[in-house]
Amino acid sequence: MRSSVDEQLRTLITNPLLQSDKRVILVIDAIDECKSGSQRRELLEALATAARECANLKIFLTSRPDPVIEAVLQGLLIKEKLENRLHDVKHPDTTNDIAVYVHHSLHEVLPQDKRPRLAEKANGLFIWASTACRMLTSETRLSSPEDVYDRLISLDQPGVIDDLYNLIFERTDPEYYAVMCSMLALLHGAFEPLTVDDLDDLVKHAKGPGTESRKRTQCGFKDGSDPIPPPNAGRVPSTVLDPPRWR
């Protein structure tokens, strides 16, 4: 039977620290990535309890603005709080950090006068800047850095990551495009499986003939809305097992 978050923290962190004089800093990045608001609340309340019980435990959290997190933390004594600095894409620290990153990454690829324009095009989004830099420095690119740069600068909206991904897909060798899409779908499903709600949403928007019951079975449901493996679950696609077919 699974233990609660509070019990796990007590077993793994609180109790050992109560018997030690060592000072420990617990760092949790992107705590807002817990999808469920109830899970975020449970985790934060357990961390708050651990911090109150252990004087030698310090906790460092990062998160995007989130009402659940703010509500739990509101009544706690917080030593230091940096609010909205990194979330604000227009903050000087954010734009300066991106400019430094672009200059360092592309100093052997682009002339100095072009690097600031690319950093500005990121519009404060590091993921945009880092992806663009990878496109320019990749050994497998199909075009020269100058051509890639021109396409990046010509994008209509600055900092729109979807436009950047579309540009990557457009520049993919047509011979491998279909396989790439299949592999990305496979990886996405492996690292972030669909939830029951996601599957239910697929059923609602399913197209083609078939009864509702049949659609639910195809999407991984059985009677009572319990998820079950679809017919091909667990079977590795032949394109993965037989690379020569798509090379």
UniProtKB/TrEMBL annotation:
<feature type="region of interest" description="Disordered">
    <location>
        <begin position="206"/>
        <end position="247"/>
    </location>
</feature>
<dbReference type="InterPro" id="IPR056884">
    <property type="entry name" value="NPHP3-like_N"/>
</dbReference>
<dbReference type="InterPro" id="IPR027417">
    <property type="entry name" value="P-loop_NTPase"/>
</dbReference>
<keyword id="KW-0677">Repeat</keyword>
<feature type="domain" description="Nephrocystin 3-like N-terminal">
    <location>
        <begin position="5"/>
        <end position="64"/>
    </location>
</feature>
<dbReference type="Pfam" id="PF24883">
    <property type="entry name" value="NPHP3_N"/>
</dbReference>
<protein>
    <recommendedName>
        <fullName>Nephrocystin 3-like N-terminal domain-containing protein</fullName>
    </recommendedName>
</protein>
